[in-house]
Specification:
The protein is mainly α. Helix content is 73%, strand content 0%.
């Protein structure tokens, strides 16, 4: 397998995971607004902060309105992390890798692109927007199912899993950032009284609510949510599970010692974090540290397998 092909399928996987994660996060955040009473001080701008995109947004838009933020996150091709941009990037990577992927992969991604292009061309209503987000989420899940059921467990599959899990782990830390940021911004007795609603909606943004309830068997509490999403080694969106998957699929590839070592550093960083009497400020700080380590891990993957002319 050529390194440039490995790079394409790795990024194809990352872009599609990012697309699905953004769709679910935006949808869950909108649901959170419906569940929280008026006057909580919660704003749409938090969605921009999740993606570290405040500077770019300020360059492109004058006001942090719902419509501007939704357009920036969903359709704005000037934002390289928007859903539309991610779908376009994924489509190009899929187009140039069609000979090693099931034909259905191209059909799903091209269908997403055509739909996104049509929706982008006109101003859509709020209800239609959320219908579109649901459609994107379902198609990304179809794509994951196609990879799982229609692709041999070869190097192509290993790079798809690496891309999916590093993107997924990063998103989980950002979701935990969201809940913590909302609680810090709304440090009132009123807001603290609604923290269960916040954590419940964030769990739902990762399809984690039912699995959390099965595991914890009591009401939604911030400390338990953090523990579940960081450490649970059976839930596929927890950071610990994602890192284990990265180590598992890295071990199947040549020249993987550096990546396994870096992954172990992330696990050590996770294990050093205590969730006892945890504060929102501590969660935010620790998630920032994990995100930096994940960025370093991506750079290690790039150096180990993509910045080379040899076959993998």
């Amino acid at each position: 397998m050529l390194s440039r092909i490995a790079n394409r399928v790795y990024w194809l996987s990352r872009y599609m995971e990012r697309t699905g994660n953004t769709a679910k996060t935006v949808y869950a955040y909108a649901s959170l607004f419906l569940d929280l009473p008026a006057g909580t001080g919660t704003g749409w701008h938090t969605l921009i902060e999740i993606n570290d995109a405040e500077e770019l947004f300020a360059e492109l838009y004058d006001k942090k309105t719902e419509d501007n933020i939704m357009n920036f996150l969903i359709f704005d091709e000037r934002n390289p992390a928007s859903m539309y941009s991610s779908i376009c990037f994924a489509r190009e990577n899929a187009r140039t890798s069609r000979d090693i992927l099931p034909s259905e992969v191209w059909e799903i991604i091209n269908g997403l692109y055509l739909t996104a292009k049509a929706e982008k061309s006109e101003k859509i209503s709020r209800s239609r927007r959320y219908s579109y987000l649901n459609s994107v989420t379902n198609n990304v899940m179809r794509l994951e199912g196609m990879f799982n059921s229609g692709l041999s467990r070869n190097n192509t599959y290993s790079f798809i899993e690496l891309g999916r899990n590093i993107e997924r782990a990063d998103t989980t830390t950002r979701i935990l950032d969201v809940g913590s940021t909302l609680l810090v911004e709304g440090k009132t007795e009123f807001m603290i009284g609604h923290q269960g609603v916040i954590w419940m909606n964030l769990l739902r943004s990762m399809n984690a609510y039912q699995m959390y309830r099965q595991e914890v068997k009591r009401k939604v509490v911030g400390e338990d949510v953090v523990k579940f999403l960081l450490f649970n080694d059976e839930f596929p969106r927890s950071v610990a599970f994602c890192i284990d998957q990265i180590m598992k699929f890295s071990a199947k590839l040549p020249n993987s010692d550096k990546i396994i070592e870096m992954s172990n550093r992330i696990k050590f960083g996770l294990e050093s974090f205590s969730t006892e009497n945890v504060t929102a400020e501590r969660i935010i700080k620790h998630m920032d540290e994990i995100q930096k380590l994940l960025a370093e891990l991506h750079n290690g993957i790039d150096e180990s397998w993509f910045n080379t002319s040899i076959d993998i």
